[in-house]
Amino acid sequence: MMKTISPGQTIGIIGGGQLGRMMALAAKEAGFKIAVLDPAMESPCGQIADIQIVAPYNDQSALEELADVSDVITYEFENIDYEGLKRLAEYAYLPQGAELVRITQNRITEKAEIRQAGVPVANYIVATSIVELKACIAEVGFPCIVKTAYGGYDGKGQVKLESHADLMLAAPLFDYGACVAEAYVPFVKEISVIVQRNGNGETYCLPVGENIHKDHILHETIVPARVSEAILTQATEAAEQIADHLQLIGTLAVEMFVLKDDSIVINELAPRPHNSGHYSIEGSTISQFHQHVRAICGWPLRKPVLHQPTVMVNVLGEHVVPLSNAISKYPDWSIHLYGKEEAKTKRKMGHVTILTNDLNQTLQEIEHSGIWSE
Ligand code: ADP
Ligand code: MG
């Protein structure tokens, strides 16, 4: 049965980055208190939390301390020690469960589950060594992408192989354990769907976003995605099918490729709010963070409806100063900065959201602002 968590009670968040911060901001509006576990003092979420526990994510006594002060626990990233999370679930209320983390923190189990849900993924094989990779690479062919099963993000932990001659480029990846090799998908667009579900099975997807990457890091999300109605329907149905299969509680971000023939292939999953859903704070009748809080607190969910076409642009370290200098010129831009101290190059520092009735003009305005030019 779904348990209801009420205003005044405390939500514990494992991880104090920007996703935790935006979850916390949404929760605080409704009067929840926030406890956060993060190794850094004054993390983006720590700065606004009621209680900060400063310790490594997998520190068992710190997790117990978090459980002691929290009425419900959630997390903002999937690379948590699964065994530790499973133990936590025995003495704390973790409505999302530990299974979702086990499945999505490993590309091998993740892809297998997506297939079991009846949704397509790129043809792939699993290899535990470069010798094994050589032996079975013919099953996927070239070009292909080899990815570490664990721990990759923003294009890290993966290499593209054009031919047999490139095989040794993948050798270093096996230092991090097993890998998957998947067929290169000649996509025309990348899109993502954020699907959210509560313990009663109530399920909603956010409007589909179109994602534009630069150097493997998300640069822009454009909503609605500029794809056919048929793709929008397929994408939403696929996300719901995966969510049902996993008996999701909380949030699942589903990254997809759109092919020339108007079909989709699932790329990867994230069991948490996602960068491509940040637009929903201003763009939708409910944001991914508010909906996440509702889902884990056993509240009814709201149907997300897009107010207007919306663009979200990421602000990396090198964009912070030019953005700050330009604020006076762009009253329609919603500025989000995550409170990170050091604006390192390529580090995600914030984002900008723009609602528009003229998408092309807004995309040009972003480009011409000079903030995101190389
Ligand atoms: P990450 O965890 O780094 O986001 P992804 O699996 O999403 O890893 O890969 C990062 C990016 O690399 C994708 O957004 C896509 O642009 C490209 N990519 C990944 N897998 C494939 C593939 N099979 N075919 C074509 N491009 C891919
Ligand atoms: Mg990705």
TrEMBL record:
<feature type="binding site">
    <location>
        <begin position="152"/>
        <end position="158"/>
    </location>
    <ligand>
        <name>ATP</name>
    </ligand>
</feature>
<dbReference type="InterPro" id="IPR016185">
    <property type="entry name" value="PreATP-grasp_dom_sf"/>
</dbReference>
<dbReference type="InterPro" id="IPR011054">
    <property type="entry name" value="Rudment_hybrid_motif"/>
</dbReference>
<dbReference type="InterPro" id="IPR003135">
    <property type="entry name" value="ATP-grasp_carboxylate-amine"/>
</dbReference>
<comment type="pathway">
    <text>Purine metabolism; IMP biosynthesis via de novo pathway; 5-amino-1-(5-phospho-D-ribosyl)imidazole-4-carboxylate from 5-amino-1-(5-phospho-D-ribosyl)imidazole (N5-CAIR route): step 1/2.</text>
</comment>
<dbReference type="Pfam" id="PF02222">
    <property type="entry name" value="ATP-grasp"/>
</dbReference>
<dbReference type="GO" id="GO:0004638">
    <property type="term" value="F:phosphoribosylaminoimidazole carboxylase activity"/>
</dbReference>
<keyword id="KW-0067">ATP-binding</keyword>
<feature type="binding site">
    <location>
        <position position="107"/>
    </location>
    <ligand>
        <name>ATP</name>
    </ligand>
</feature>
<feature type="binding site">
    <location>
        <position position="147"/>
    </location>
    <ligand>
        <name>ATP</name>
    </ligand>
</feature>
<comment type="subunit">
    <text>Homodimer.</text>
</comment>
<dbReference type="InterPro" id="IPR005875">
    <property type="entry name" value="PurK"/>
</dbReference>
<keyword id="KW-0436">Ligase</keyword>
<feature type="binding site">
    <location>
        <position position="213"/>
    </location>
    <ligand>
        <name>ATP</name>
    </ligand>
</feature>
<dbReference type="GO" id="GO:0005524">
    <property type="term" value="F:ATP binding"/>
</dbReference>
<keyword id="KW-0658">Purine biosynthesis</keyword>
<feature type="domain" description="ATP-grasp">
    <location>
        <begin position="111"/>
        <end position="297"/>
    </location>
</feature>
<protein>
    <recommendedName>
        <fullName>N5-carboxyaminoimidazole ribonucleotide synthase</fullName>
        <ecNumber>6.3.4.18</ecNumber>
    </recommendedName>
</protein>
<dbReference type="Pfam" id="PF22660">
    <property type="entry name" value="RS_preATP-grasp-like"/>
</dbReference>
<dbReference type="GO" id="GO:0046872">
    <property type="term" value="F:metal ion binding"/>
</dbReference>
<dbReference type="GO" id="GO:0006189">
    <property type="term" value="P:'de novo' IMP biosynthetic process"/>
</dbReference>
<dbReference type="GO" id="GO:0005829">
    <property type="term" value="C:cytosol"/>
</dbReference>
<keyword id="KW-0547">Nucleotide-binding</keyword>
<dbReference type="InterPro" id="IPR040686">
    <property type="entry name" value="PurK_C"/>
</dbReference>
<dbReference type="GO" id="GO:0034028">
    <property type="term" value="F:5-(carboxyamino)imidazole ribonucleotide synthase activity"/>
</dbReference>
<comment type="function">
    <text>Catalyzes the ATP-dependent conversion of 5-aminoimidazole ribonucleotide (AIR) and HCO(3)(-) to N5-carboxyaminoimidazole ribonucleotide (N5-CAIR).</text>
</comment>
<comment type="function">
    <text>Catalyzes the ATP-dependent conversion of 5-aminoimidazole ribonucleotide (AIR) and HCO(3)- to N5-carboxyaminoimidazole ribonucleotide (N5-CAIR).</text>
</comment>
<dbReference type="InterPro" id="IPR054350">
    <property type="entry name" value="PurT/PurK_preATP-grasp"/>
</dbReference>
<feature type="binding site">
    <location>
        <position position="190"/>
    </location>
    <ligand>
        <name>ATP</name>
    </ligand>
</feature>
<dbReference type="InterPro" id="IPR013815">
    <property type="entry name" value="ATP_grasp_subdomain_1"/>
</dbReference>
<dbReference type="InterPro" id="IPR011761">
    <property type="entry name" value="ATP-grasp"/>
</dbReference>
<comment type="similarity">
    <text>Belongs to the PurK/PurT family.</text>
</comment>
<dbReference type="Pfam" id="PF17769">
    <property type="entry name" value="PurK_C"/>
</dbReference>
<feature type="binding site">
    <location>
        <begin position="267"/>
        <end position="268"/>
    </location>
    <ligand>
        <name>ATP</name>
    </ligand>
</feature>
<feature type="binding site">
    <location>
        <begin position="182"/>
        <end position="185"/>
    </location>
    <ligand>
        <name>ATP</name>
    </ligand>
</feature>
